[in-house]
Design a protein that fits this description.
Elements (H helix, E strand, L loop, with lengths): L2 E10 L2 E11 L4 E6 L5 H8 L6 E6 L2 E2 L5 H6 L2 E4 L11 H8 L6 H7 L1 H5 L10 H13 L5 E5 L7 H14 L5 E4 L3 H7 E8 L2 E7 H6 L1 H8 L4
Parallel strand pairs: 3-8, 3-9, 6-7, 7-8
Antiparallel strand pairs: 1-2, 1-4, 4-5, 9-10
Length: 228
């Protein structure tokens, strides 16, 4: 496993949000982190990258991340795309990319995946559409040479055409870099994910083959509250 999570606990504002979460992320392909709203998916992602205080063990390619700050985890090769995109609205597309660059970058890959970013290089990020901002959020991470990508709700609120573009980009990236993906669009999960980890009330409720999960209507409804 490229990532091994053992007994991860998170308490925020007096609430026990994550309770002994344990799972692994394979060194290739896409692992989907699923669950109903409020299950703890985003809290898990933020804990892994060091933005939420946590206890337990997080082993990244065998190295314990305990005590490491967020920038140290990123420097070690964790790429994080947050749910709310977090682009710098007052900066241009190009400036956003430059600000997130770490050493040697691969802008050719970014512009191949998202040619719209090349065309809008001098446009302020705050004036981009939601889909374009998501492309920029992904591009900021993809330009760097990461060893694992943590991607939180990349298609949330996007038009169907943009959802397809984002899914295609992640599919191409996952051919070379493993991805831990939080995603509510089950069609995207079905297309991309090999393994699924399902959270319920801050704990792991199910782990297994993603296509098996999504192919079982009763199981999907029970765990996720939706049909296929």
């Amino acid at each position: 496993m490229i990532l091994d999570v053992h007994e991860l606990d998170v308490r925020l504002s007096g609430l026990h949000i994550l309770q002994g979460v344990s799972f692994g992320v394979a060194p290739s392909g896409v692992t989907a982190l699923l669950g109903r709203n409020g299950a703890g998916k985003t809290t898990t992602m933020r804990a892994l990258v060091g933005l939420n205080p946590s206890t337990g063990r997080v082993l990244f390619d065998g190295a314990d991340l305990a005590g490491r700050r967020t920038h140290e985890r990123v420097q070690a090769g964790l790429g994080y795309v947050p749910e709310d995109r977090c682009v710098f609205a007052g900066l241009t597309v190009t400036e956003n990319l430059r600000l997130a660059a770490r050493g040697e970058t691969d802008l050719d890959l970014v512009y191949t995946l998202f040619p719209e970013l090349l065309k809008r290089g001098q446009q302020k990020a705050g004036s981009l559409s939601g889909g374009q901002q998501q492309m920029l959020a992904l591009g900021r991470v993809l330009q760097n040479r990461n060893r694992l990508l943590l991607v939180d709700e990349p298609t949330k609120g996007l038009a169907p055409k943009v959802v397809t573009e984002v899914a295609e980009a992640l599919e191409r990236v996952a051919a070379t870099v493993p991805v831990l993906l939080v995603e509510q669009n089950l069609a995207v999960v079905r297309r991309l994910a090999g393994t699924a980890v399902v959270l319920a009330a801050g704990s792991v409720a199910w782990t297994g083959d993603a296509k098996h999960l999504l192919g079982d209507a009763e199981l999907t409804t029970s765990l996720l509250g939706v049909g296929r």
